Amino acid sequence: MSTILVQVIVGGLLLGAIYALFSSGLTLVWGMMNIVNFAHGDFVMLGMYVAFVVYTMLGAGPLLGAPLATLALATLGVIVYFGLIRSIMKGPMLAQILGTFGLALLLRYSVFWWFGANFLSLPENIVGGTFDIGGLRIQASRLLAGVVALAVTLGLHLLLTRTSLGSKMLAVAEDSTAAQLMGIRPDTMQAIAWAIAAGATGLAGALIATFFYIVPTVGETLGIVAFVTVSLGGFGSVPGALVAGLLIGVIESLSAYLIGAVYKDMVVYSLFLGFLWFRPQGLMGKS
Amino acid sequence: MRRLLWPSVLLALVAAYPLLFSTPFQQRLGALVLLYAIAASAWNIVGGYAGQVSVGHVVFFGCGAYAAMGAYAHFALSPLVGIPVGIVVSVAIAALVGVPTLRLSGHYFSMATIAVAELVRLIVANTDYLGAGVGLSGPTVPRNVFDLSFISALPYFYLFLMVLAITLGITWWMTNSRMGFYLRAIKDSERAARSLGAPASRTKLYAFMLSAGLTSVAGALYAILFGFVDPESGLGILISVKILIMAALGGAGLLFGPLVGAAILVPLEEISNNLLGGKGAGLTFVLYGAIIVLIARFQPGGILTLINRVWARRNAGKPDIEAVKGAAHAP
């Protein structure tokens, strides 16, 4: 394989790790509460803007921007859960989808109104330089973002499977009434799930902002990427989201390199529709 | 005959509107209200009656708009000729998306509709035959009456009123047919309906295809009114948003809900665009987002359901739960 192809694939994997990170938030909420957050991509967009504001106001890079974005979005997640989700999750399907879809619009156009429709970006050298590993040239910002995203996604998986908090959350997901009888508060667990899911988008947003364009409507594209990732990985599965995210990152990079950058989103969306036809339970799901 | 009384009064009032409010701006506003009411009523068939929330309905709207303009731009035919083409393509897309997703939980359907709308927008924006980023234009100077290019908004108003009446007639007919009974059963409990032998997936698919075809007619009329279509005005996600919010605000699953929603929101948007100028576009959608969230949170049935509830309470002198529940299904 030529070096350039390897470089494209590595770039795809690093981007895919970030896709995996924010998609695991979506899959967590979906698996636990059977609710799809249509504002998920816009949460990522908010994370990007938090990182941008931290840079322009404080002059600080992702070292400060990433934790702040995580914290800000986690807080937003809890507010959204108690203010909106808790009441619509018992309601009709129409209310569930309208609720989060309306939230997406509200966030997207508030940012649009405040910051305008211009493409913003962080300075390229905010995470310095480019590495040269065995002939592969990799931007430090992408490498850092990809590695952190991968580590946090794996950490999230460990949190859900290896800790008592994770067990409690899974118990609520399995049967919320039974969990309540065991002394677990579903409300608290679900609020924590929203904090984790939204926090993951905040972190992903701050990471991706170091090398991605920042624009209010970016959430729409990223939201669909999250849908594709989750439906590919099987709903509720963080490892599934990880594999699917990496795969989609690579597919996107390869199609941008092989057929042209305008076509990369088309390829991913078509893939999604194709998957709904042939394997709606995802790659790893049981039929 | 009493049940026909209110619809007839409403129709008479709407028909008299352009005579009472006769400035060009008011007539054009009226035509726009009716146009969006057609699209939102068409959405209502799948979103309200079948309970499947399509968030990518603009794809059908765009099919109609592009077919109408394409008929003129490429074949020098009347835009009207494009309408059947738009309907056929829309129904085909609806089947393609509906067959796999309507068997699954409603979330998949919503996600698939948003993805297919974006996919089609990207494809059209990169296809030179369809005008790519610039779009297609209709006749600027009408050759004959079938070009439907008028200076006054009055002919459009009555044309749209006619199409709206047909759309509502089809909806009304559907709710009283076997399909309407199936849809009501499925919406109450899909599992129960299936176990009693209602063909749930197929019924939802038919509703989706019917809705898609009617939406494409609305799209064609939109392009005819404005004389052009481009990827943003014909296939942008914000058109989906407008269609959806009008139906939901007025009352999803109620015959006149979308018309009420359009009559509130179209003037609101015009006013906010006029008052706020360029900045208005962003703020209008902030407002739309807030309205959608509030409807979902507090009044998923929309304004008409609220009015019906108050009405039922007044008539009965006490809160009447059954009347309220029944109201959601009454035509």
Give a description of the structure.
- The complex is a heterodimer of chains A (287) and B (331).
- By secondary structure, chain A is mainly α.
- Chain A contains eleven helices and two strands; from the N terminus they run H-H-H-H-E-E-H-H-H-H-H-H-H.
- In chain A, strand 1 (130-133) and strand 2 (136-139) form a beta hairpin.
- The longest helix of chain A is centred in the first third of the chain and has 31 residues, at 3-33.
- Chain A is globular, with a radius of gyration of 19 Å.
- The model of chain A has no long low-confidence stretch (mean pLDDT 89).
- In chain B, helix 2 crosses helix 12, helix 4 (79-101) packs antiparallel against helix 9 (200-226) and helix 7 (178-188) packs across helix 9.
- Chains A and B meet through helix 3, helix 4, helix 9 and helix 11 of A and helix 4, helix 5, helix 11 and helix 13 of B.
- As an assembly, this protein is heterodimer
Beta-strand share of residues of chain B: under 5%
Fraction in helix of chain A: over 70%
The counted number of beta strands of chain B is 2
How would you state the average pLDDT of chain B, rounded?
87
Q: What's the number of extended β-strand segments of chain A? A: 2
Estimate percent helicity of chain B.
Answer: over 70%
Main sheet summary of chain B:
2 strands, antiparallel
Order of helices and strands of chain B: HHHHHEHHHHEHHHHHH
Low-confidence stretches of chain A: none
Low-confidence stretches of chain B: 322-331
For the record, the count of structural domains of chain A works out to: 1
Tertiary shape of chain B: globular
Question: Strand count, sense and closure of the main sheet of chain A?
Answer: 2 strands, antiparallel
N-C termini distance of chain B: 14 Å
Please state the overall shape of chain A, judged from the principal axes of the Cα atoms.
globular
CATH domain topology of chain A = ABC transporter involved in vitamin B12 uptake, BtuC
Q: What is the radius of gyration of chain B?
A: 20 Å
